């Protein structure tokens, strides 16, 4: 409620006499006026909103009887009323004034009105009718806005990785901030502003949804936009950051006592803070670098100013001399550094864990003056003889307020040229108000405000402005004076109205004023004028976040009555209507129950969220905060100044009002824009490049080209060779690249010579090269990021209490709450921290996977945040299958100082495959902690899978013999066979196309390019159609259809990541557009329309691009073929243009559903030209693929034409039919697609699938069934075929046939299997379980017999998987591949230490138990060096390796998109920045990369003959000894059987990695094998056998004969035979 008080005083006798005479004089004048025409003044908002109640005020001046006025809104032209007509009566009882609410009715203002000619939809008019007041109807033009209410959007965090889900909420409110349930439109745009999601939904006051970000999405800002339906101006949006990141382990902050540096200061000092998110400090080292950032964000590194210092208890003090900064800048030709920002970058190393975290800052500005003075709240216009207030605020350059500062203002008044000086002190917010009486003759004022330091003589900052006198006739003015300009709860505001009139002129009897908030009039009042006319306003939530006071009076002049006015804006403390508060939390431990208590003062809904504060280290923007809420509320304020105006009419307009007045002041209509114009400078992104002298010569975009060029090439390629890899760049960029590369060569050479002179021939460091590699910050993480995403109801008292279990993360969570109350509305609570920590805990880091028999060093870090020192026993528990040094586990005693951490290392060797639990216990006498993580262990060699599928049919041959032979190179114990039996011909394809996990089985290949993205959409579309038609959804998992729809939606989002501005698509954004690919994507998007919301414009844009490539003859050409020349199925290997034209004709037919009859003419014309061409060419087609796809295209566009019908005979002549097997197919004549030759190549599958689609259209069901049988037998286990295209087309054809035959209706099939080991399995299939029958797994291979009985058909799919030490070499005569590693730290002979001999005796059990396993020299060096490591001088280099990948073709045969699949050695992870550089830099060595688990996929547009090499770095996650070899494969993506594989291993001599078991020294990798040792001389031959056979310490005894040994680049192969078994092992 708004509370006001009125008071006034008479100051002297003359004043009283004047006031006594004035009413008599004025009333006589007014009576004469009223007798003729009463003065009427009506105001309304300058902008009104459809469907929203607006406030209109009306007043009649000097009335002595009631007056009636009718008010309503109408269209700008005509008399059509668009609101209710309201009639008011102004009487003495209401002071002849009234406040009316009018609303533009949406039903009276339909959209169709906007389409009529001569109607201006952006405007309406306020109409006032009164026979008593106006001689004719009065109108005022008002801007009409569709904006209404409020929409707030909240995401569960502000930053996401590609591939993550975004949870978001939409809150919908009316104009009074009360919940409303309306239809809203939600649109989501990706980082390139392509709309990837659009849907109209009912808001239900709070709407919760989520969206998946494609894993190929480039970095950038995504945006969610929500608006009320048909109210686009009500749109609200929120952005979120998408980029590759991981949460930091600890937060590094730069804390300075002041955010500025002046050149008068000798040095700049600051503190580096490095603390875990739960508040504890780290101990380690800080590396600090400095630079300069200008206003545009361009960065110059100040080489030579680097610092290194210790971090103790989370703190480090750093100081840099100002002279050093200036000198470093001058060395790079920057003479004046004032105005730049000091760039500070800190890398912090935590000694115990070895973890690195980074931060950077540019908040320190180099200035002459440390203060920034803001006068934006000072009025630009003044009234002579009034009290004028200068409102100034002072801050540091970073925006932080400067409290209690001495302020001074100099005011020069013109034309009198007098100067006043005002002094005062600012408050705690840095604000000051300096007031003075303006002279009567003043016409303008020059104002200069100074901020002074402690010494009055030292003036540190100043700012200037000018103010002008209000233009007023007859020098009559009104000013509003305030005792404060900020109103807080429990405060009152005193408002003084001062009227200024020339001497002898009648003064007003009353002052009228109104209070406006968010464009609405809250209060309308008149107060009798006194000598000091004042009113008081109490704080009210209705005034939040700000309000305007508009005051005016009327004066009668000879030329007529006019309005004298003034206004002022008042800020109000941001508080909600009603309470919402999150109760503070005490400290909790992980996995502990916590009560989240939220207090409100009424029944409400509360939306909760919890976010790891580590997220806000990366991005603090975009979250929903109370500040954003109140800023959005203030968007409804229609004013465009802090008050006042150039004249009295402008005062009203600048306050956001329009008016009707039968006075001397005419309304010119609303401003062209109702909001103030504000220019906001947008900063460019900073450039993180080195060699500043070279790079700084260029501006964008050439600067990036130069920055890439000056990076050192680790393969030592010349600039001439490197520039050949920049063909995708512009000529200007290539020229800049080459010049900068050559300049960098010269700079390196000069630097090298200088360093030799200065170091007198000593070994040179890599200092200069380190300065070059600034790079982007890479951040690591192990924490969940958000949780508690719930909407809950309070109890009747408004209290919410919700119990949850805290996550296991040791961190600080920010708990957020948003209230939605039916009576108090919306409010965002101040968040509260929930700290989850332990004073004592142990952490363990493991790699994604290791191989069996590799030596793994498990690193456990013990953290002690207690004050006292602890003696801690750290134990790793013994577990089956994991070799450790002790029988019952391994123990180590360590001393952990207070507030510190100690690392403990355990060497283990996994002996079995699978998940092995690693359990580490740390305890002292008073405290303990235990942690368990799973170690994934895989077998040696490479996993190989062989697939086969058989058709099951009870009507034909119902007995089947299947052989599953084990290849001779199989590693024992690593063999498994999976058997799947499904009903119908769709088989596993249906279930696996409906969810993401299944799609990975459908096509087990990377999905990094645009065409591959469609694999998520196309199969799911056809499977949904099939299941809808067959009614089989009830037999599947509940919610599976929704999963499938989500999969299609995700595929849609993913493929739009590749969309270009003209609507076309290339395999990647960086590659030229492909006609074929654009048509393919348009076709699939059109087919998705029936299931998800797809933008028609995207399909139309794609087809416009395709049509533009059509020739006059009707054919289509592709100037930029897709990466793979055979990617287009058979198209790339056909002669002529028929196949391409037929494919695009099929796409155009599907895309036509995105057009209406008014816009489809270009498409129809193109289709007709293509169809005519194909009909003419049909007789000349000799390729099965050409004929099949052409026949299908014609069947879609002209199904009854002569050519379409004739195609059947010609197609069947080319068919290969087997009457015994009852199959038919078409062979493209290619070979080499299959390893075992049992299955056809990809092109044959695609050709046969197109033939099946055509034959289905011709109604030849018998032939179609034979074709379908052959197709199913080409399918792989999991439901897919060779690649994307054959899978998409084949599944479409099989689904169409299945829907036509209704094969599931009569299904009743029994399948009996007898396996080689005698095991029997029986499966019964019917409609209800046909698609959900679980698979059967058997160990090893063998064979089985299958018998089928009953009715219907089905499929039997078999996948035989094994591991082998041999790689496929079927195409090693075509592809060349080499993979090797080089370490950046090399060995020297003197680094080795004497190694104790392995010793244990057969005679002593004690010695046996205490023996230390043998490790070779290299292994001991590895382990000891790692255990000694605390803070290496260069931590990045010690744990880094470089992969060198060389590939090429050995023949001139064309090859399409090639992928190199590299399995990383255990314990390594790739350097993302290196991969980014070779994929997206000016030098382009790869077209794309993907990282999945421990694999790196490299995509190549084109592979040339000869050998081409590239490098990328890897870093060690966990030390691995005796590392096993890993595999790398090069293959043609669209014919993945065309592959060549190699094994590779670690370098022989490297600190990190060593080769498997060199020489006679082997360790635990030998498992249970006893060792042959010369520990004592055996005098009798039987001594060893007696010991072996009769000692309880020996498990098994074999006599083995070694026949031969061979060695390749990776493995040593022994040919051996067990000649005698002396003792079997336990359980064998």
TrEMBL record:
Top-rank lineage group of the source organism: Eukaryota
Gene3D superfamilies per UniProt: 1.50.10.20, 2.20.130.20, 2.40.50.120, 2.60.120.1540, 2.60.40.1930, 2.60.40.1940, 6.20.50.160, Alpha-macroglobulin, receptor-binding domain
GO cellular component assignments: extracellular space
One Pfam family linked to the record: A2M_recep
Stored InterPro entries: A-macroglobulin_rcpt-bd (IPR009048), A-macroglobulin_rcpt-bd_sf (IPR036595), A2M/Complement_sys (IPR050473), A2M_N_BRD (IPR011625), Alpha-macroglob_thiol-ester_cl (IPR047565), Alpha-macroglobulin_TED (IPR011626), Anaphylatoxin/fibulin (IPR000020), Anaphylatoxin_comp_syst (IPR018081)
Keywords in alphabetical order: Disulfide bond, Secreted
PROSITE patterns per UniProt: ALPHA_2_MACROGLOBULIN, ANAPHYLATOXIN_1, ANAPHYLATOXIN_2
Anaphylatoxin-like domain ranges (all copies): 705-741
Subcellular location: Secreted
Single GO BP term: complement activation
Molecular function (Gene Ontology), one example: endopeptidase inhibitor activity
PANTHER family to which the protein is assigned, alphabetical: COMPLEMENT C4-A-RELATED, MACROGLOBULIN / COMPLEMENT
Name of the protein described by the UniProt record: Complement C4-A isoform X3
Organism of origin: Chanos chanos (Milkfish)
